[in-house]
Amino acid sequence: MTEADISEIKTLLSTPKTVVIVPHKNPDGDAMGSTLALYHYLIKKNQHPTVIAPNDYPDFLKWLPGDDTVLKFENNEEACTAKVNEADLIFTLDFNALHRAGDDYGKVLEASSATKLMIDHHQQPDDYATFVYSDVSMSSTCEMVFNFIEMLGDTDLIDAQIATCLYTGIMTDTGSFRFPSTTSRTHQVVANLIDKGADHAQIHNNIYDTNSYSRLQLLGRAMKNMKVIPELRTAYITLSQEELDTFNFKKGDTEGFVNYGLSVSGVILAGIFIENEAEEIIKISLRSKGDFSVNEFARAHFNGGGHTNAAGGRSHAGLQETIDKFISILPEYKSQLSPK
């Protein structure tokens, strides 16, 4: 983002505007943390913001400050569409292609004449925003929102609510600060947020230490279902709709399951394949170590994308057919996956 961009944005925010803030579909900690942090910041700038999420998100994120103000497009398309149509500014956070907000919501956003601002750290952004802050080296969109506020000269406006939201997104998208995208700058930002009032111990507890008994049972089934292909340093997990139903699956219950596959000694590629009968898809999450790009893998084979070491995709085939396809593709990457 250039100095000229920042100057124009300062001018835009110098007078009250109607603002819509949008996370991606099935929003995670970084998506909700960044949108709610920006929401609280814009209120302090005398703006009129509304966060409109495409759909619902896990209960373990619903303690975030401002959660009770969030509208959900899937619950009331007419009212949310009206809000978008009235907006002067639209911020899209933690995604860089409008269809990532869902097909219907994406079309509403595309049709809007509002000035659009993108803040995102995923690869290969689409060209839809007037102002683009895109940096794939960043740990999280929340770290970028902190930088955005800093660029505008407003870090003094960061309070405990904003700090809590930003800390949550940075913590979740860095795997509690263990992923390679975590830099010394990330830790400097986090230290600043703690100084501003983020209670890091309580945030961690709210996100990770409030498991239901049924979720732990589901984790046990996922571990039982895990398969390892040692010669290709790959592990994968499957969960059928029947298994999800058996263990009373709720949105967010499978968060982080794929990382158990990646933790197996010698594994550098892990995936989880989750059946969703309602949407008639198999949801796929992929993780990797080193320079094996699951972003490229997901884009090439499973209508997805993301980061080099963390990506997602989907399949419209059945669960077993999707697994068979995944296994059949792996030999194409033998030189990258085989032990050296």
Structural write-up:
- The chain contains 14 helices and twelve strands.
- By secondary structure, the chain is α/β, with parallel strands linked by helices.
- It has two domains: 206 residues, inorganic pyrophosphatase (n-terminal core), CATH 3.90.1640.10; 125 residues, Roll (Diaminopimelate Epimerase, Chain A, domain 1), CATH 3.10.310.30.
Question: What are the key terms here?
Answer:
6-stranded mixed beta sheet; globular; Diaminopimelate Epimerase, Chain A, domain 1; inorganic pyrophosphatase (n-terminal core); alpha/beta; 12 strands; 6-stranded parallel beta sheet; single chain; about 350 residues; 2 domains
Give a topology summary.
Layout: H1 3-12, E1 18-22, H2 29-44, E2 48-53, E3 71-72, H3 77-86, E4 89-93, H4 103-111, E5 115-120, E6 131-134, H5 141-151, H6 160-173, H7 184-196, H8 200-208, H9 213-225, E7 227-229, E8 234-239, H10 241-246, H11 258-262, E9 269-276, E10 281-288, H12 294-301, E11 305-306, E12 310-315, H13 319-329, H14 334-337
Parallel strand pairs: 1-2, 1-4, 2-3, 4-5, 5-6, 8-9
Antiparallel strand pairs: 7-8, 9-10, 10-12, 11-12
The first-level CATH class of the largest domain is given as Alpha Beta
| CATH-assigned fold name of the largest domain | inorganic pyrophosphatase (n-terminal core)
Shape: globular
Mean pLDDT: 96
Query: In angstroms, what separates the terminal alpha carbons?
Result: 41 Å
Largest sheet: 6 strands, parallel
What's the helix-strand series?
A: HEHEEHEHEEHHHHHEEHHEEHEEHH
Strand content: 15-25%
Q: Helical stretch count?
A: 14
Helicity level = 40-55%
Number of separate domains: 2
What's the name of the CATH homologous superfamily of the largest domain? Answer: inorganic pyrophosphatase (n-terminal core)
Write down how many β-strands occur, each being a DSSP E stretch of 2 or more residues. Answer: 12
Runs in which pLDDT lies below 50 for 5 or more consecutive residues are: none
Which architecture name of the largest domain does CATH use? Answer: Alpha-Beta Complex
Strand order of the largest sheet: 3-2-1-4-5-6
- What class, by secondary structure content? alpha/beta
